[in-house]
Structure formats: structure tokens, C-alpha cells
UniProtKB/TrEMBL annotation:
UniProt superkingdom: Bacteria
Source organism per UniProt: Luteolibacter luteus
PANTHER family linked to this entry: METALLO-BETA-LACTAMASE FAMILY PROTEIN, METALLO-BETA-LACTAMASE-RELATED
Any Pfam family the entry gives: Fer4_13
Domain 4Fe-4S ferredoxin-type residue range list: 14-42
Name this polypeptide is given: Ferredoxin
Amino acid sequence: MADREDKNRENVTGKFYVDSQCIDCDLCRETAPNNFTRSDDEGYSYVYKQPENEEEKAMCREAMEGCPVEAIGDDGED
Ligand code: SF4
């Protein structure tokens, strides 16, 4: 389960986030490219835009459920 106290620092404020457990597998970026991207410097993913409609929310949830190390959370705030 993702830990909101351990978010990658690049995440934008809001519900979804990626924490430090990310293994850079690319699944979330493929599943929800409007919301997840890669830090090339750090070698992990982060949320660069929170979902703005139902379709994006569904893709973020799918990414969260598919993440092999449960590094994506949906209980984030600022
Ligand atoms: S699916 Fe999970 S492990 Fe894979 S890149 Fe995204 S956050 Fe990282």
C-alpha cells in the first residue's frame, strides 16, 4: 500500500500520487499517460496532473490497481 508520507517529491498536489517504492516499470505511464510521467533524473514515476474527468480518473484507478509494487495511492493531499 502506498504511503502518502513517502511521496516522490515531484507529485502535484492532490488525490493520486506515487511513492518511493516505484520500480520504474512504465505501467502507469502507459495506462494513464495524461497523469503519470517519468522523472528521468530519478528513475521513477510521479503524478504530473491530477485527473480532470471521469475517463482520466478511471485510468488512474486502473494504473493504481495494476502497479506491481502498490506504489500508487489515491488518498493524497498537499
Ligand atoms: S506502475 Fe508502479 S512501479 Fe510501475 S512505474 Fe508506475 S508507480 Fe512505478
